[in-house]
Amino acid sequence: MKTPRATERSLVAMVALAGTGAGLGLLVGQPGWGAAAGLLLFALLQLRQLLRLQRWLGSRDLHAPEGFGAWQPVFDALERRRKMDRQRRKRLLVALESFRDAARALPDGLIAIDEGNEIHWFNKSAKRLLGLRYPADVGQRLDHLVRAPAFVRWIASGTFDEPLIDQPAPEDERVRLLYRLIAYRPGLRMLIVRDVSNLMRLEQVRRDFVANVSHELRTPLTVIAGYLEAIEPEELHDFAPLFVEMREQSRRMSHIVEDLLTLSRLEAQSAPRDEPVAICPMLDRIQRDADALSQGQHTIELCCDASFDIVGSGKDLHSAFSNLVINAVRYTPAGGRIRLHYEPHGEGAAFSVIDTGQGIPAQHLPRLTERFYRVSNSRSRDSGGTGLGLAIVKHVLNAHGARLEIESTIGKGSTFRCVFPTSRLAPGAAP
């Protein structure tokens, strides 16, 4: 190999210098001093090579200086390593520039911020959507530049599981934005800003369409249902079963229209009324309605803590709670038990509906609050459900800053829990 041969040449050179020095020293009667002088010369040559190596490592020159002996393979290896490092650095710079170009070209705004919300970097779309200036705004706090109250509260909360949706852009309120925050490195987060104006307009068109169609269907359905109610099935003889089915389907269609109108109203309102709602009297009425619907086929129990009420819309809360209770009655077999609990839960309060029904498979739980989503189409039709009850519950709870928790075990039953935060609680009247 090259390195051992170079090392051998260095040893030979050292011995030769020492021998030459000893020979010259012998002429003057000092062979030891002569050998020492030869070794010193060899050491000085090695030091010279070290100094040349040091100067080269401090320079940008790719080509290493010429060496002798064992130094030449060292210089060659370092030169190859420096060339490889330079090529690797060029590839990394090209890749980094490619990523930066891709980030600049994205239609979504990207803003890199730290835990103190100070801006480290942003792309062109962020400049356009939020009105940021480069480089003046780099190092500034983002919540000092975007002063929308909802955005400031959201980014200060520190909980970013849910995005901030439908917020006006600082430069143009007609542009609606969606904010999402993602942690990508320790201490650093990426804020994604997306223009959702078209989606919001399409969603508004959908809501208006559903509301208008439902409103237009209400009158003819009312007329048809009225005529069907006025006719006695016994007068139709062989057609009596068909007539009864028509009457049931007209009632079901009327219920669907009413639920669609309720959903449209909930979507249209900006915020619920903030007034204390006495929950226990409301649940007492809902229990009586459930008993009437059950016709004695179920055991319905109510346990209510009257020491605190909920601030919100009594009409909307009644709609949400009654939908949960009616679902429990419809989907719990005869002889089952239904418990209604209103009690403290964590730092807030919760209304729970616990039944002993058939249970719901786990794969269906995430989609239960979708409109018209059914675990079993035949079972839903038989029970008279519209498929909109849980969608209404979700909208009401979202408007009140609450959440819906669903737990279910096949063959044992289900629990639907409405959890309200402390900010929605108010002292209740004595029972």
Can you tell me about this structure?
This protein has 431 residues and is an alpha+beta fold. It folds into 4 domains: 2-99, no CATH class; 106-195, PAS domain (Beta-Lactamase), CATH 3.30.450.20; 199-268; 275-427, Heat Shock Protein 90 (2-Layer Sandwich). The protein contains 12 helices and 13 strands. A hairpin with a 4-residue loop joins β1 and β2 (119-122). α1 packs antiparallel against α2 and α7 runs antiparallel to α8 (240-268). It starts with a helix and ends with a strand.
* Estimated structural class: alpha+beta
What spatial form do the alpha-carbon principal axes imply? elongated
Distance between the termini: 98 Å
Q: Domain count, please report it.
A: 4
Number of strands: 13
Number of helices: 12
**What's the arrangement of strands in the largest beta sheet?**
2-1-5-4-3
SSE run: HHHEEHHHEEEHHEHEEHEEHHEEE
**Average pLDDT for all residues:** 81
Radius of gyration over C-alpha positions, nearest whole angstrom: 40 Å
CATH class of the largest domain: Alpha Beta
- State which percent range the strand residues make up: 15-25%
Pick out its properties.
alpha+beta, 5-stranded mixed sheet, 4 domains, Beta-Lactamase, 5-stranded antiparallel sheet, 431 residues, 52% helix
Secondary structure layout plus pairing:
Elements lengths: L1 H26 L3 H27 L13 H35 L3 E6 L4 E4 L1 H7 L11 H4 L3 H9 L6 E5 L7 E10 L2 E8 L1 H34 L9 H29 L6 E3 L1 H16 L4 E6 L3 E5 L1 H18 L5 E9 L2 E8 L21 H7 L5 H11 L3 E7 L3 E8 L4 E3 L4
Parallel strand pairs: 7-9
Antiparallel strand pairs: 1-2, 1-5, 3-4, 4-5, 6-8, 8-13, 9-10, 10-12, 11-12
